[in-house]
Amino acid sequence: MGKAGTGMTIGNGTAIRDVVVVGIGSMGSMALWQLAVRGADVVGVEQFGRVHTYGAYAGESRLFRVAAKEGRLFTPALLRSRELWQRLGAAYGQDPMLPVGALSLGPSGHPDLESTLRTIAEFELPHEILDAAQVRARYPQFHVEDDDIGVLDTFGGLLRPELAVAAATDRALACGTTVYYDTTVEAIEPHDDGVRVVTSNGELLARRVVLTTGPWTTRLMPELTGLVKVATYPLIWFLPRHIEMFTPDRFPGFMRDLHGVHAFGIPSLDGYSVKATPNIDFPMVDDWADRCTLLTREQLKWAGEQMHTMLPDLIPEASRWSVHGESFTEGKMPIIDTLADGRIVIATALSGNGFKFAPVWGETLADLATKGESSFTEEVFTLADHRRAR
């Protein structure tokens, strides 16, 4: 069994580890798990605690989809991700994924629906297409207009991110991995024999470093400033008058487009509220500390009005809300690449679209760190392509 320590002194030993994973959140925990089960001598370093409220993954739940509206590029990775979510749940004894389905609902011909349908057709994914009358009959929770259609991704559902991070870390610790918590990485210094990782509690030496620090990326890689930005995204919960209509056995995860507003939501997990959040734009900033940390009364009022229109049973006053920082690129494509002749493997800028991919990107990072290649890397994920696109 490995060790998980708070503020443990690392020391300045000369032992060279196979891999050090910096940032044990969405992707870092999954990379740690994948490396550990392969028998790698891997160490994790995390600036906060084992599961905390500061990461992009916090907030109780995330939508999971296989039929990607973002296009065909991502669907093979999502199919693999689904397999890995199931594997993680079986190994841990609690399932981070609830297969309740993911419903895309909007006017016929909407670009996101059209892209989703093309992906479904190309990969022959299991699904249902519902006309307006069928949506009203099956999901009376929604306000449905006559030109609406629903596309139900039956492989979709929801994820519980805090549980997922805890589960992946637990599996790595069970394989003998050590994780240093409350430990800040101050520098990553590649050299001919590997990489030196300087932390607030000592130094580590490794052949490879996996860097998964999300909105803190540019603090360790200042050369990416301008390429990787930090954005705020909100999560908002509302109280329905009839909670029994919104339990996971009766209500799917959803994306809804109505009158030019896009929103997503999750069935009730706490037994009294529903996460239902419309898009709210915040300015991009260069550093996590500069992000917006509040929702204004005007924003919350507007959000309540939109969600009450879409789901009339909701009381249009937020029962709770939170805001989170996430790393973005201009084109909203992730960065998954290697630096320093492969000695540094980096994944960042999931652009608000990353948690459903977490285990497959973790597997990809483990592949890059141990084999130098992965079947799920793409040219559009590379730093060179991102720089060309600017």
What's this model, at a glance?
The protein has 390 residues and is α/β, with parallel strands linked by helices. It contains 9 helices and 20 strands.
Structure description:
With 390 residues, this protein is α/β, with parallel strands linked by helices. The protein is 26% helix and 31% strand. Strands 1, 2, 3, 10, 11, 12, 13, 19 and 20 form a nine-stranded mixed beta sheet that branches. It has an eight-stranded mixed beta sheet with strand order 7-8-6-15-16-17-14-18. The longest helix is centred in the first third of the chain and has 18 residues, at 75-92.
- Helical coverage, percent range: 25-40%
Overall geometry comes to globular
- Please indicate the percent range of residues in DSSP E strands (runs of 2 or more): 25-35%
* Poorly predicted runs of 5 or more residues: none
Which secondary-structure class do the elements indicate?
alpha/beta
Number of helices: 9
How is the biggest beta sheet arranged?
Answer: 9 strands, mixed
Beginning-to-end CA distance, first to last residue = 46 Å
| Rg for CA atoms | 21 Å
* Overall strand count: 20
Integer average pLDDT: 95
Helix-strand pattern, N to C? Answer: EEHEEHEEHEHEEHEEEEHEEEEHEEEHH
